[in-house]
UniProtKB/TrEMBL annotation:
HAMAP family from the UniProt entry: DeoC_type1
Protein name: Deoxyribose-phosphate aldolase
GO molecular function, one term: deoxyribose-phosphate aldolase activity
Cytoplasm recorded as keyword: yes
Native species: Dinghuibacter silviterrae
Family: Belongs to the DeoC/FbaB aldolase family. DeoC type 1 subfamily.
């Protein structure tokens, strides 16, 4: 495994995040060489400026954390994030649609959002909240979003009771095309946990414990 820092999206998405928190996150990301800083939408512009001149990407979330915003609302969030300078967008799918077996809605949602993101040369990570899905639902997500041509399928928001699991990453690895990467997030706090996810097939790790992972005591 290469330098583990290069796998990490250094993340802080709590609703009480302060400017000082965001500034610290960016400083740590530059110091350790994390892949990206993932922050709430209001911090995108500031984060982009603080990361300027580094290789660290600016990432934010869309439809977070529950995913049931209307497609039009997600479109607005996407457009604003891109204008503000986000490189990568982590979007929660409409889980209400999924649980009501409305796959046509989900296909329409990704069919609307993905061209906007790719049209601007940005990266889309689709969060399916694997901890609340059945195995069959997760496989069907792999098929739908894999065929759509997204950049990453992401396990979790970190807000559900169950976060990333090795089993979910292994299912995703098995059922996604090789062109779609896997991001494991939710409850990953140690080097050992991160390495287990990477060994299972994840190429990105979303965590608020990035510093502890790269500097285990």
């Amino acid at each position: 495994m290469h330098n583990i820092a290069s796998y990490i999206d250094h993340t802080a998405l709590k609703p009480t995040l302060t400017l000082a928190d965001a500034d610290r996150l960016c400083a740590e990301a530059r110091t350790f060489g994390f892949a990206a800083v993932c922050i709430p939408p209001p911090f995108v512009r500031r984060t982009r400026s603080l990361l300027e001149g580094s290789l660290v990407k600016t990432a934010t979330v869309i439809g977070f954390p529950f995913g049931y915003s209307a497609i039009e609302a997600k479109v607005s969030e996407v457009l604003l994030a891109i204008v503000d300078g986000a490189d990568e967008l982590d979007m929660v799918i409409n889980l209400v649609a999924l649980k009501n077996n409305d796959w046509e809605y989900l296909a329409g949602e990704i069919g609307t959002i993905l061209p906007l993101v790719h049209g601007k040369g940005k990266v889309l990570k689709v969060i399916v909240e694997s901890g609340v899905l059945t195995r069959d639902e997760l496989i069907r997500c792999c098929e739908l979003y894999g065929a759509a041509g997204i950049d990453y399928l992401k396990t979790s928001t970190g807000y559900a009771e169950t976060g990333a699991t090795v089993e979910a990453v292994e299912i995703m690895q098995k059922h996604l095309p090789s062109s779609v990467h896997i991001k494991a997030s939710g409850g990953i706090r140690t080097f050992a946990q991160a390495k287990t996810m990477i060994d299972a097939g994840a190429t990105r790790i979303g965590t608020s414990a990035g510093v502890a992972i790269v500097q285990p005591s």
